[in-house]
Design brief:
The complex is a heterodimer of chains A (about 250) and B (about 150).
Chain A: E1 7-9, H1 14-21, E2 27-30, H2 37-41, E3 49-52, E4 61-64, E5 67-71, H3 86-91, H4 96-101, H5 104-109, H6 120-127, E6 131-135, E7 141-144, H7 145-150, E8 156-163, E9 168-175, E10 183-192, E11 195-201, E12 208-210, H8 229-245
Parallel strand pairs in A: 1-3, 2-3
Antiparallel strand pairs in A: 4-5, 5-8, 6-7, 6-8, 9-10, 10-11, 11-12
Chain B: E1 2-5, E2 8-11, H1 20-27, E3 46-49, E4 52-55, H2 61-64, E5 68-70, H3 83-90, H4 100-113, H5 119-125, H6 136-150
Parallel strand pairs in B: 1-5
Antiparallel strand pairs in B: 1-2, 3-4, 3-5
The chains are: A alpha+beta (about 250), B alpha+beta (about 150).
Chain lengths: ~250, ~150
């Protein structure tokens, strides 16, 4: 089976994209392409159908009715001036060209593999208390990001939103600069009305919320190509400390 | 689908999922964008898409239908090097040459958006471009010369 056997759907509106995605069976969504294109080009991924999302009008950032809403096809580079800790997390993704291609929706759907921690934005959006609006089996729904990630993210993300309220925020990350642009571990924190939300990327296939009183609680750390579970366990409390030190009065 | 490459319009027949890199190299015979890591991590496949640097190995053809692509051939000719090419030539900015096409295009785009780019901006613009000869000192000096020549 070659590339020409895969039918390529190029919807020009969000409704067309939702219809083309259907229940998501045998469809691979390609937006920025940064995660799936290497697998498609090398023949490791051969879906029946591919849905190219870049022309469906699902990009852009809006602020209205007390919400910040970011379209799924918005490039990561568009978050350079976003609210903290989102902007800091976005700056840690890949490099200039990859940030311009990679999309917010793709980042929310990506899981880490053994050689590549992924999903830098997930922890920041968790800290912001974000909700994901998605389509797929059972129709359109809006759910908390933690629920979306726990369900395995097998849906078509339409947008992600969070309350447009002032917060105190913090971010701390360990990455390996040069030749390997993956973030090993990152902790994002946001505090609003006395409620602190703390989350980490790089501790599980997808980002998770941390218990501020006991950040290692419930984590099942694993070794991968970039860091051992032991190393991560040493780093997490330090990163939490650094992220919280950004938040005044904590 | 239609691509304009270095000012010349081409009708292309590849699947909309084929990476732009392979369309350029195999369907159009334009081999300056190199097939390096083919995972977006090395930078040598970089081309300009409507003036912006992009990884051609990660771009499905569907993403660039109707776009204007510039490869390093579009920056000058052997007889008349473009300013970025001339700066690299004068400052020994290329060793084996494998990373050079991507580095030149990223530099060209950097100078277009920031004609007075300083060291930090240069490093950020080239962060995704790996030189396995480790010729970074000469590369940065060449970019600084190109920036100096442009400003």
């Amino acid at each position: 089976m070659g590339l020409n056997d895969i039918s390529v759907l190029i919807p020009s509106t969000a409704d067309e994209a939702i219809e083309a995605f259907g229940d998501g069976k045998n469809v691979v969504v390609v937006a920025g392409g940064t995660v799936v294109m290497p697998d498609i080009a090398a023949g490791r991924l051969r879906p029946k159908q591919a849905l190219y999302l870049g022309r469906a009008g699902l990009d852009g950032i809006t602020r209205k009715k007390g919400k910040v809403t970011i379209g799924a096809a918005t490039p990561v580079s568009a978050l350079a001036d976003a609210d903290p800790p989102l902007a800091q997390a976005a700056a840690h993704v890949g490099d200039l060209e990859v940030r311009a291609q990679a999309t917010v929706g793709g980042n929310l759907c990506s899981a880490s593999s053994d050689d590549a921690p992924r999903g830098d934005l997930q922890a920041a959006f968790l800290a912001l208390g974000a909700s994901v609006r998605s389509a797929g089996k059972g129709g359109e729904k809006t759910q908390s990001l933690e629920k979306f990630l726990a369900d395995g993210a097998g849906r078509l993300v339409l947008d992600v939103s969070y309350d447009d309220e002032p917060r105190q925020a913090g971010y701390a990350a360990v990455w390996r600069p040069h030749t390997h642009h993956y973030t090993i571990l990152a902790v994002a924190a946001a505090k609003r009305d006395g409620e602190l939300r703390l989350a980490a990327t790089g501790v599980a296939p997808r980002a998770v919320l941390l218990d501020p009183d006991d950040p290692l609680k419930g984590l099942e750390l694993r070794d991968d190509a970039l860091a051992s579970a032991w190393y991560r366990a040493q780093l997490i409390p330090r990163l939490v400390e650094r992220a919280l030190s950004d938040i005044q009065g904590v | 689908m239609n691509l304009t490459v270095n000012g010349i319009s081409h009708e292309v027949e590849s699947s909309g999922l084929r990476p732009l890199l392979h369309v350029l190299r195999e369907e159009l015979g334009i081999t300056s964008p190199k097939a390096g890591c083919q995972q977006g991590g090395c930078g040598t496949c970089t081309v300009l898409v409507d003036g912006e640097p992009r990884r051609s190995c990660l771009l499905p053809l569907a993403a660039v239908d109707g776009a204007s692509i510039t490869t390093v051939e579009g920056l000058g000719t052997p007889e008349h090097l473009g300013p970025v090419q001339a700066a690299f030539h004068d400052n020994y900015g290329s060793q084996c040459g494998f990373c050079t096409p991507g580095v030149l295009l990223a530099t060209h785009a950097l100078i277009e958006r920031s004609p007075n780019a300083g060291r930090d901006e240069i490093e950020e613009a080239l962060a995704g471009h790996v030189c396995r000869c480790t010729g970074y000192v000469k590369i940065i000096e060449s970019v600084e010369a190109a920036v100096g020549g442009a400003s």
